Every structure is written in C-alpha cells, then in structure tokens.
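Reviewer comment 2.1 asked that we show a complete input and output for one of the modelled complexes. We chose the adenosine monophosphate case, as it is the one discussed in the main text.
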Amino acid sequence: MNDILPEDVHKWHSVEDRARYIFELYGFSEIRTPLLEQTELFARTIGEDTDIVGKEMYTFIDKSGASVTLRPEATASVLRAVVEHSLLNQDSIQKLYSMGPMFRYERPQKGRYRQFYQINVERLGESSPLCDAETIAMAYDLVDAIGLKNITLEVNSLGCQKCRPVFRKQLKEFLQEKRDMLCKDCSRRIETNPLRVFDCKETACQEAIKDAPRIEDHLCDACRSHFNDLLQTLDALGIPFHKAPRLVRGLDYYVRTTFEIKAEGLGTQNAVAGGGRYDGLVKALGGPDVPGVGFAFGMERAIMLMKEAGPVNKGCFVVIQGGREIYRSAMALISDMRSSGLQAQAVFEKSMKSQMKRADKSGYLVCAIIGETEVAKDMVTIRDMRTSSQVQVKRALAINKIKEMIMA
Ligand code: AMP
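Response of the prediction step:
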C-alpha cells in the first residue's frame, strides 16, 4: 500500500480530470459506492475459484459478527447499488463510472499493489456489439489522452452459456492429458474452472497449453457474429487491435467480449485497463435480466508511465521584497492572479535568496518580483524561469503577460 505524495498528486488529478471529461462526452455519470461490502457479494459475482476470491480478499468479521470485505473490484459494488436503488426502473440504460481504491492481498511488485486505484466503467442495458466497441473506444481514448505510448488492444470472446460448456469439456480433456506438466493450482482447475489455466503465469503451464483448443473455434453462431461485429466496428472506429485467443481475465463473470489495453514500459504487469461483457450479472444480484459491459483502468500503472515525462507546473511564484506595505500590495496582486485562474504562491518575510530558491523549486515557469521600485512605478518584474530573462510590465497588464509566457 502506497502513500501518494504531493509531487505526484497533480498527475493523479490530471488523469482523473481527463477521465471525467472523456466519460461525460460519452454520456456517463459518476456513482460512488462504499469501500466495504458484505463478503458474499464478491464471492457470488467474481467466482469462488478465482485468485481474487480464493486468496486475495481482505475479509474480516465486524462487531455484529457479519463477514465484510474491502472491495477488490468495483463492478459487484456498482451493480449492487444499481439493484438496491432500482436505477434501471428510472432508465433502462445506465452508463456509470466510478473512481477509487481497491484492495487485493497480492504479492506486491512493480505495478501490483495491495491497495490500488481504479477508474471503472459500467454500462448496463445494451447487448449490441456496437456497445462493446464504443466502451472499448472510450477506454482507448482515455489511455491515448494521457499520452501513453505504443498502446495495444487485445480482444477475445469467451462465448456464452450455450457454447462455452462444449469448449470447456474439450479443454478439460486436453488438460487431463497434460496434468503432469501443470502446477498444483492448475491441476485443481481442470475440474473446477479449466479456462483459468490460460491465465496461469507458470512457464510449465504455459508450455502445456501451447496446443490447447481455441475458444474462437467453438463459438456458437450468435457469439461468432457478436465477435465479428465487434471487430468490424473497432476497425470502422480506427482502433487497432489484436485477437488474443487466450485472454480470459481474472474474473469469472465475463461472457463473450473480453479485452485488455497494454502500454509500453510496464514490464510484465503491462495491462493498464481491462474489461468485458457480463450479461447475467445484474440478474445474479437479484436485479432484472439486463446485459452489461465495462472495464477497469489502473491508476498506478498509468501514473508510473506518465512520471517519466516530469512535472510542468503552470503557475507563478511571487518574490516580494520590502516592508509590510509592499507585502500588502503584492498580496492584492496574488489574490487577483488566483481570481483569474492563475495558480500563485509566495512565502512571507524571507530573504530574497531564500525566496528565489523556493521559486526555483516550485517548478513554475514564471516568477513575478515586487519590490519598492516596482510598487513606486506601478510595475511588476516578470522573470522567465527557463531562460532567466526579465521584463517589467505595467501592473494592470501583468497577469495577462504571465499567462502568455506560461502558454508559450
Ligand atoms: P482487473 O480488475 O483485475 O480486471 O484489473 C484491471 C486493471 O486494474 C489492470 O489492468 C491494472 O491496470 C489494474 N490492477 C489490477 N490489479 C492491480 C494491482 N494489484 N495493483 C495495481 N493495479 C492493478
């Protein structure tokens, strides 16, 4: 679990702001749910035989004896809220997003933490593959908008209740032959959830499934047509993709579409967002039988990649020299700067040298200097921190000049 320090927080804000902006362009609204839910909610929706439910949940008994769990993902909580507040009665299409921390007791490593933040999108009430494509496009827009490089989109179809059991049977037979090569978990999964073997990170298991049957070859007509429509729509939207026949993802509720967006520079934990279709999940939670599709975007991984670019602080540090009267005059200007939307800071009654040092450290591109001479002439000295060049401008024009220099 990490602290998020002030030097990074502006990056978090910029990703969150971008997400809000993009999602609202697509007609989505924010929903906020509690961090804590009844344990049963996750066990029932995510699947008993997933790593999340089997090994990774922070579960405890509260003072009333109830088993509660810190949410390991958002979909179950959001759908619970939709059902509890009968939102689908108000509008049969719900387009929702949420942001916040998730908790999984995983082995911490680069890009994998025990408390991590996700931006989540849930879209209920539409079963069309066009809806899958638009949802993927929205995820792609976000990853693209924050400047991540060499983005790749992987898509797969996991079939439905009709065709998946046939495939599962074939896969089971294949895996039984390979049992000796599989790790202990996968050996157990042959009976409980053979598709999960595709997701195992063990080299021996990956080797064993090299020639495993592919789900794409077993899709029923409806699932095949859904998948083809999705791929054609992604093409039409100009979103490049790869088909990934082994992409099953770590949650059991997906049907048909699953996808992951990867970005360069993340090493093995290279998925920055992932999701898919989960028709049937709202019904399983006691709600109406409506289809759904969604994704989760990992904040830490995105921020890690953005960090390399370094911060650009667009504000003005005001260096002040003189007595109280000069300070008051400078504070009035700082107040005007803030009213006009310009970030501004000063420190009070410190030496010129120490103020200049702070101005340097602030990372701001511009610094304004106000001393007795400036106040007497009703001028402000403006210093470009990148070039150290200075100009004097009339006080009434100072804010516009600073904004102009910041934009240059
Ligand atoms: P999931 O909820 O497992 O479908 O994951 C969706 C996205 O959340 C992943 O692509 C990651 O970007 C992020 N994520 C999942 N687990 C972790 C974790 N333990 N630490 C950091 N990010 C994570």
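Residues 73, 104, 106, 111-113, 116, 118, 249-250, 271-274, 296, 298, 300-301 surround adenosine monophosphate (CB under 6 Å). We note this here for comparison with the apo prediction described in Section 3.2.
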